[in-house]
Amino acid sequence: MEQSNQTAPHNGRCMSTETRESVLSRKSRMMKHRLFMKLRQKWKLLGLFEIDGDHEFYNLTCSLKEGLRAALQASIDKPVLDTLCDVDYKAVLTQVHEEFEMQTFAGPVFTHFRQTLGMAETEYQRSLSSEGFYLQFISNSKSKADFFLTNDKRFFLKTQSKKEINFLLQNLKKYIQHLKMYPHSLLVKFLGVHSIRLPQERKKYFIIMQSVFYPDERIVARYDIKGCQVGRWTEPASEGSQIIVVLKDLNFEGNCICVAQQRAWLIQQMQIDTKFLQDLHVLDYSLLVAFQPLHADERTQSWSFVNLILRTKKSMNVGGSPTTSTQTTVPGIVEEEVVSGTEQCSVQETPSTNRVIKKKVCTQLSAESDLSDIVAQNRRLLPTYKNPLHVLDGPEVRYFLGIIDIFTVYGFRKKLEHLWKRIRYRGQAFSTVSPSRYAQRLGQWVETHTV
Q1: pTM here?
Q2: Where is the composition biased (Polar residues) (predicted)?
Q3: Does residue 327 have a pLDDT over 70?
């Protein structure tokens, strides 16, 4: 009996310990399973993280949606005039909500600009305030900015410093004037500037811009190009992985951008846009490039009669909406396609019937507008695509191209960084150089990497 009394408690303790260990083990397995399922869901989203209820930015993004819905409703209820004045560039709309405060800067200017792109305010509002979760994009950029994508992946929201926001607002009129002069510019399209203040938190400033890589369903490679080598390599994703990795200059070696007849247009537009950025005294901006193979039917229809008419219509009005366009001239086509006079249009490797069609379209274009104005604006025939201003179709591949990150001014700190890098990376090409050299180098990169 004594032996039995001594062993029973011992056995009970052992079973209790084993039970606890079993429970802990089961909980651990369940947590790992949940983590795996979350990771699997993130992988399904091609590396974009859903900002759901468990995410650190969930409350912020919910407030952003509510605030943006209200801010855009104000512009819907009170449409802007056809012409802008100086006070519109300095306008600040402050809206106080129950849990936060939001400010909208230069609202009438951005509303007017969105209209010139053919973007309906209700459509823009619906995308920014939809019930679907925002997506967080983890960038390999050195900046500490947070990147959010709308659920349809059409618009980027990016946090910026107050200094960067002030720089954009101070140069907003120049930016708008540049895009009015060159409506087919490669510069990223900024669509709004806002700030938000949550309780017990610092005010956050952010910009909204069109995603250069929209729609991205069939994109096979993405690159961030600065035209230099130092620090310009990113480890690619493992084979078969769907995680998004934005590669860099050194990763691009061995590739080229084949846009055939549109090469001259691309080179010239790069020169125009980088000269504009040089005049703003900025550097360290990037040329985004993405590849998407064309389907067989997309390759064969480029110069079909219907496609040519659709492209001409889209080019006449950048946004594709005749009711909202403020453009008064008809855009031309790629420089090699437009010659002098009213009828001459060169055609490369197209059937004879399409030669006649193109010649007639060019005649019609020249009859409606002055071709010299068209060439001066460096316009082109836009593709019939959702994001035509950032898309160029080559013979086999569709390219997405856009210039982003235009806020780094070549001030005292950057000049010191330039001197330090000259010593450390002697004989090597690095990003921190004068604005004129930066513009020249990125333009040269496009020339040497296009055919």
Answers
A1: 0.79
A2: 1-17
A3: no
